[in-house]
Each structure stands twice: as C-alpha cells, then as structure tokens.
Amino acid sequence: MSENTNNNTTTSAVASVKPYYQRWRLLKDKLARYGIAFGGLAVIVALVLIFLYLVYVVYPLFLSAHADAVAEYALPEAGQGKTLLLAMEEQNEVAVRFSDQGRAIFFRVKNGETLSAEPVGIPGGVAITSFAQGQPAKGVVAYGLADGRALIVRHRYRVTYPGDVRLITPYLEYPLGKTPLVVDEAGSALQHLAVQVDEDQATLVAKTSDKRLLLTRFSREESLFGDEPELEVTHMTIRRTEEDTDFMLLDKEQRMLYLASRNGELRYVDVSGSEPGRFKEKLVDVLPVGTEVSSMVFLNGDLSLLIGDSSGLVSQWTLVRDAQNRFTMQRIRVFKVSGHKILAIRSEQRRKGFLTVDAAGVVGIYHTTAERMLIEKRVGSSRPVAVALSPRANAFVVLDSADKMHYWRVENEHPEVSLQSIWGEVWYESYPRPAYIWQSSSASNDFEPKFSLTPLLFGTLKAAFYAMLVAIPLAIMGAIYTAYFMAPRMRLLVKPSIEIMEALPTVILGFLAGLWLAPFVEENLASIFAMLLVIPVGVMVFAFCWQQLPKRIQYFFPEGWDAALLIPVVMLSGWLAFFISPGLEELFFQGDLRLWFQREWGIGYDQRNALVGGLAMGFAVIPTIFSITEDAIFSVPRHLTVGSLALGATPWQTMIRVVLLTASPGIFSAVMIGFGRAVGETMIVLMATGNTPVMDLSIFQGMRTQSANIAVEMPESEVDSTHYRILFLAALVLFLFTFVFNTLAELIRQRLRNKYSSL
C-alpha cells in the first residue's frame, strides 16, 4: 500500500514538473525567436541609417549653384575718371576702383558709400598711358607713364575689432616706393605693361611707343649692417617688335611672358634668363581666322591662360610636354559662353573657376576641371564696363555703361564635382593628355584638385581579383579534401588550425607584407614563379611514385592521412625551386627577371605591388572561404554519397557530380563572402601595395583601393569641404557596390539551392 502511494506521489510530482519545463522551453523559444527577429531588424535599420547618412553628406555635392542680386547703386565718385579696375576684399565689405585719373576710390560694396578717394601718386603733368594688374591675391597694380616710368601700388585692408565689431580699413601701399620707377631709360611712353611683385623681387615688362619690349627687374639686397635693403635694378631689352601686342601677361614666378594680339597670335617667352638676347620665344595661333581675342587672363596658379574671343568662346591653353619632351602650348578645353563678344574674364583666386561677362551683359561662372557652366545670369540692361570677383568667389560686382553698380551674392560651394571630373578622363593642367587621376590636396590654393574615383574603383577590383586568385583555389581545394577525403582525427587538427588564422589582425599581416614579404618577393621573384611550376610537378611525381610502391607500404599509412605525406614533398619542392631558380634566371632571363620584364616587355616593377598584396590578402581571405566551403561540403547528407558509391561511382565522381552540386550554394556563399572581405580590406592594401592610385593591370604595379583611400585621407580632410564629401561619395559607391553585388549573389545562391535541394 505504501509502495503504491509512493508511486502515485512520484507520478503526480512528475506531472506537475513537466508543464513547468514545457512552459520554460516555450518561453525560451519565444525569446529566441523575438531576439533573432529584433537583431535582424536592427541590422537592417543600421544599414538603412548608414546609407541615409552617406546620402546626407554627399547630397550637397550635387546641389546647383545660384546667384542673387543684392544691391544696385550709382558709381561712387563717377567724376574722378573712368574705371580701369574693380577689386574686392575677401569679406565682401569694401571694394576699390582704380581710375584713369590716378585715383583709388574705396567704397562699401553693399551701398556704394565712399570710404576714401586717394591719389595713387602720379607726378603732375605726366600722362597715364597703360595700366596692369599683377597677381589678384596680392592686390598689386601698376600705372605706366608717358615718360617711361611706372608706379606700382598695392591695395590693402586692415581688419580690427573695436567693441567686438569688425572694422575693415582700406589703404594703399607702395612695395617699391612712392616714386615712379624707371622702366625705359630712353623715356618712351609705356603702351602696354605686365607686372608681378613678390617679397624679394619685382618684374615689369613693358612695350614702348617705339616698339621695344623691355624687361626691368627690381631686387632687394639685404645690408650686412641691418640698414634698409637696397633696390637693385636690372634693365634688359627682350627684342624690338613690329607685331601688334594687345594683351601682355607675366606669370607669378616671373618666368614666362605671354604676348597676344587681337588677331589670335600668341607668343610665349621664357624671360628667366639673366642676360639680354638669351630669351626663348615661340609662336602659336590660338584663334581661327575671322575671330579676335577680346580678353586674356591667367587661371588660378598661372599655369593656364583663359582666352576669350569675339565669337563668345573661352578657351583654356596650357604648356605641356610633347613626345620630344619639349614644352608646347596646347588648348585643353573650350567653353561656349554665348554668341556675343567676351568683354572680361575674372579667375577665382582659390579654385580653378572663372567668371565671364559678355557684350549682352550676361555673367557666367564656370569651372575648368569639372568642364561645366555653373551660373548664367543677365546683370543690368546696359553694356558692362568692368567686373570684380571676390577672393572667395562668393560675390561679384558689375559696372555697366550707365554708371550703375550691380552687387550679386553667389552660392557655389562645390564646383569641382561633375560626372566628368569624377568618372571620366580629364585633361589637367601641364598633363600631356587626358587621364584618370586622384590627387586630392596640396599645400597651395593654386593646386588643381583631381577627384577621379575611377582609379580607386579600379584599384579595389584589382586588389580583390588578385586576392581571390590566390585564395579561391587553395581554400576550395583544401576544403574539398578536408571535408571529404581527410581522416576525421586529422580534420579535427586541420580545420581549427586554418580557422584560427582568421583571428590574425590584418594590420599585422599588412605590416609583415610591407616590411618582410615585399623585399623577399623582390629578391626572389624568379623563385616565386618557379614554385608555381616545381611544386605541382613535385606533387604529381610523388603521387606517381607512391602508386608504384608495394601495397603493404601504401597500406601502412591509414586512409585519409595522405596529406601528411605531402608536407615534406611540398617543402622539398619549394627548396628545389629556390635552388634551381638562379640558374634558370641566368639561362633564360639574363640574370635578372625584373630587368628582363622591363627591357623586353616594358613592364616596370615596384617593390610593393599587386603580387605582394594578392599573397597577403589571399592569406587573410583563405580561412573565410575554407571554413564555409568545408562546412557546406561536410554537411552534404551521407545517404547521397553512400548511394552514389553503391551505384558504382568512384569517390571523385561522387565528389564532382553529387557532393559539389549539393554544396554549391554554400561554396558560392563562401566565395562571395570572401570577395566582400577582399573588397573592404584596408590595412593590407594600405601597407603592402604602395597605396598609389594608378590604373595599371600589371601584377608588378601597386594600386590604391577606396577603403584605403578613405582611411588615409579622411583624418586630413576639412569637414564639409569638397574633399570631405568626395570621400563620403567613395564610401557610398563602395556601400552600393557591395550591396548590389551581395544581393545578386544571394539570388544566385537561392537559385542554386532550389535547383539542387531535391538531390
């Protein structure tokens, strides 16, 4: 009786406990289900947020530029002469106009209020016969006089903050003294003038009324006793000229002189020589017959000329080296402004943009590198007379023939960006031909940014290609043998050993590849290629010899441990490749394989190149592809392989026709994940491939990938600058590329899975 009672008690206890565990298990299942769903949704939300943030940063690059009228007022001090030049300071608060009466009138940009009207210091009784502007950023101008002298003046602006309010005070400065300088000792009138002034030297080039072309250099000589520096003057006659000279420009290096006539003849003269008669001059026709030059200025940096003509075209000309390594003047692009004569061109002082004004009063803003028009606005109803573009290119002032001033604001943050400048070939200044170039920054505002993403995308694909070329055969073949042929005990050693390789930091792999592997490959290039031939041959010879051994010796080693026998074979074959390669290199490649490639095929060799990067990245990608592939093959149902063998198929036939087909979705996923890892790799390509943004298919040349470029340049880029946003654009392109590629890969994987799931 007591025994029955105990049994009943136990049964009731079990019955009461069983629902408790069931409830707990159901609760855990629900938690796991909701947790996994939440995690998956969180990943999707994170990806969407990343995408939206990238778009948010990149979007301003593609906003259109615009200009808005701010004010219109009468010309300040109109009675003090016609305007020779208009200029503005960088805050767009104060402007100046230089008149043909030798006056500098400073006024407020917003309303035309005159601040001061100062005489520049032209001697009484001497007529002004010419006028020239030096480098706009330095504010230098020069007046040429009828007695062969010239006066150099600089307009400057002093910024103070009385009472925490910004106050800009304009004033004139005389870098070479207030007394006019003698340019022509014979006293002839200076009809045309070009000027440049820097801290230690100034150069004036003048064409006189008797058709002589004169060059005068002024150099400051420091005194040993700390006195005021003395001004040393050198006079030289470049030549007598019978040709018309309507435009004259001297570059900021005071080296190249450009002379142009209205009929389109352009002469460029190297005036860097120190002796008369040593100047080198060349002539080029820049316009077709029937048109004439109407304006000529330097583009920022003084490496290119912008030439406007009577047909409404603006062409960019620059000196490039020809096939004989000689400098020639080349037209690299043309802008169709309008059908009217170009009256004036003003270059931006900090970018490669420019402003034009035509005879119809239309103001256009263009960018040379992007090769596009940004703004086109009609300003006023009268013919323009003068125009000033602010140093920051965010405002301009136009004076028309009715003595009306028009002040406009400009919003033009990222003019460098266009589909052509990002993805197409661009003819950059001083380059012999159009090219894909990435060179984003420099220490000077004169630099022409080169934002082509094409070499970065090319480098990304090149790095991934060579990495996969190394990783796919080794990883997949190794996974096939490990999962299908290797003994279980050996598999337990091999698989974790390869998978633990994935834990190695890529920065360590990149460090070793750059400092050890790259020099090693360079010194033993012939041996590396010899290994590709010797090791496979050695393995095949060993396999043949193994088959000839007696069965008792073959059966001495357990089945599935064959790979252990190949370890010494591979090592011996590698040693043999290194041993025989010097002789082969001497016999077939004249002792140096690298020089032979250069001499015979014109293929150069960089120490850090795609070969080194492919080996290092392949080593990093192998564990990923191997692990997923091995799991996919090992997970093939056992009844499929057993059934195939039972029907008479050999193990290799079973592997190829059954196992690989069934495991193909997993193998394809492994390859795609490995490819994604290679595309996104940063530190290895940064340290092992030279990080050079060149487009060269050669395995012996380096490259730069998008991820490496972002890692290198993002810390140095100015926030919200064009460079900064272009880097985010590169990240967005990489994001979209991997997303689209992985989506297509997933579709293919699902199709393979559906096709072979019935096996």
Keywords summarizing the entry:
single chain; 759 residues; alpha+beta; MetI-like fold; five-stranded antiparallel β-sheet; four-stranded antiparallel β-sheet; 15 helices; 31 strands
Tell me about this structure:
Among the domains are: about 15-60; about 465-520 and about 605-755, MetI-like (MetI-like fold, Orthogonal Bundle). The protein is of the alpha+beta class and about 750 residues long. The two termini are about 60 Å apart. A hairpin with a 3-residue loop joins β12 and β13. The longest helix has about 55 residues, at about 1-60. It contains 15 helices and 31 strands. The mean pLDDT is about 85.
**How many distinct helices?**
15
**Strand composition percent:** 25-35%
The amount of helix comes to 25-40%
Q: CATH fold name of the domain at 464-522 and 604-756, please? A: MetI-like fold
> What is the annotated CATH architecture of the domain at 464-522 and 604-756?
Orthogonal Bundle
Shape: elongated
- Note poorly predicted spans: none
Number of DSSP E strands: 31
| Measured distance between first and last alpha carbons | 60 Å
Short description:
The protein contains 15 helices and 31 strands. With 759 residues, it is an alpha+beta fold.
Could you give the topology of this structure?
Layout: H1 2-58, E1 66-74, E2 83-88, E3 94-99, E4 103-108, E5 114-119, E6 128-133, E7 140-145, E8 149-160, E9 167-173, E10 181-182, E11 190-197, E12 201-208, E13 212-221, E14 230-240, E15 247-250, E16 256-260, E17 265-270, E18 280-285, E19 293-298, E20 304-309, E21 313-321, E22 327-336, E23 342-347, E24 353-358, E25 362-367, E26 372-378, E27 384-389, E28 395-400, E29 404-411, H2 419-423, E30 438-439, E31 450-451, H3 454-485, H4 488-499, H5 506-523, H6 525-548, H7 551-554, H8 562-588, H9 593-601, H10 610-634, H11 638-646, H12 651-680, H13 683-688, H14 706-713, H15 722-756
Antiparallel strand pairs: 1-29, 2-3, 3-4, 4-5, 6-7, 7-8, 8-9, 8-10, 11-12, 12-13, 13-14, 15-16, 16-17, 17-18, 19-20, 20-21, 21-22, 23-24, 24-25, 25-26, 27-28, 28-29, 30-31
Helix pairs in contact: 1-15, 3-10, 3-12, 5-10, 6-8, 10-12, 11-12, 12-15, 14-15
